[in-house]
Amino acid sequence: ALLGLELFSAMMSFDDDGKPVLDDYENGLEGMKGHLPDSTFNTFWESVVSVFIVLSNDGWSTIYLDHARVFREQGQSAILPMIYFISLIIIG
Fold first, then answer.
1. CB of 33 closer than 8 Å to CB of 24
2. How far apart are CA 54 and CA 74, in angstroms?
3. pLDDT tens digits along 33-45
4. What's the confidence (pLDDT) of residue 88?
5. pLDDT given for residue 36 in this prediction
6. Angle at CA 20, nearest 5°, toward 85 and 12?
7. What CA–CA distance (Å, rounded) separates 83 from 30?
8. Are the CB atoms for 33 and 21 separated by under 8 Å?
9. Crossing angle for the helix pair 79-91 and 44-55, nearest 10 degrees?
């Protein structure tokens, strides 16, 4: 949960069409233009819940795909979320 918090906190926000909004956390949570998905790694407790969802194999693919979309939209490779979620499933 702590590694997910370190890697993925303050990254995810989506507009009404489901497209990632980049740099939406610059003005804090009150000034966000987009909305947060159901599972994030923004706080420790949200991170614990997200890890629990991944470990119970109940909707983990949605969490992974949201993170992969954000990474691709930022111009980065989606390898880091893939490695994190696969290793979480295997080790967990």
1. yes
2. 24
3. 888 888 889 889 9
4. 92
5. 84
6. 50
7. 32
8. yes
9. 70
N- to C-terminal Cα separation, the chain: 11
CB atoms within 10 A of CB 55: 13
Residue 24 CA to residue 39 CA, distance in Å, equals: 17
Token match 């997200």: residue? 50
Q: Which amino acid is at 67?
A: H
SS3 of the chain: CHHHHHHHCCCCCECCCCCECCCCCCCCCCCCCCECCCCCCCCHHHHHHHHHHHHCCCCHHHHHHHHHHHHHHCCCCCHHHHHHHHHHHHHC
